[in-house]
Amino acid sequence: MRRLLGRLALRRKGEAQEPKDSGSPGVEIRPGRPADLPAVLAIERLSFQNPWSRAALRQELENPADRFLVASSAGSPPLAYAILGLGAGQAELLSLAVHPEARRRGLGRTLLETALRRAREAGAEVCHLEVRVTNEAALALYRRFGFVEVGRRRAYYADGTDAALMSRAL
């Protein structure tokens, strides 16, 4: 673990610093609420081949150790969400998705920035995630935030696609 933290700290000191962002105009990042579940489930189904179930999303929403964040504008239903697991000085980005019609507007960047800040505030020293090796947009976002690939899970997804394991120091 110390070796991983050291390697990630070196990477973080280099060119891949967390972008400075004042947020997406008119967008509020807030804790998720039970009323958000239908919109989050719709985003999940539009974004992933094997979406989480409503019960799984509800379980994460109700887990006091996790952070379930949503991005919405002017009282509208969520346009994006992130789920962050926390424990033992570590964070894991369990899911992050943006509604297809709201992509390329900085919502994912703003949500990830907020999630990482919340993880640091909760005492996490490192953040981990898994992402499809074919998801170029997500890989580019995570690399921009200083995540580095630390391993692979072969044939992790139902269709046989590998997952890249990525981490970064906080």
Provide a quick synopsis of the model:
The protein is an alpha+beta fold and 170 residues long. It has five helices and seven strands; from the N terminus they run αβααβββαβαββ.
Describe this structure in words.
By secondary structure, this protein is α+β, with helices and mostly antiparallel strands. The chain has a single domain (2-125), classed as Aminopeptidase. Helix content is 33%, strand content 29%. The protein has five helices and seven strands, in the order H-E-H-H-E-E-E-H-E-H-E-E. It has a seven-stranded mixed beta sheet. The longest helix has 15 residues, at 107-121. It is globular. The two termini are 14 Å apart. Residues 1-22 have low confidence and may be disordered.
Whole-number count of domains = 1
CATH topology: Aminopeptidase
The helix content, as a percent range, equals 25-40%
Into which percentage range does the β-strand content fall?
A: 25-35%
Counting H and I runs of at least 4 residues, what is the number of helices?
Answer: 5
Which structural class do you get from the secondary structure elements?
alpha+beta
Order of helices and strands: HEHHEEEHEHEE
For the record, give the distance between the C-alpha atoms at the N and C termini, rounded to a whole number: 14 Å
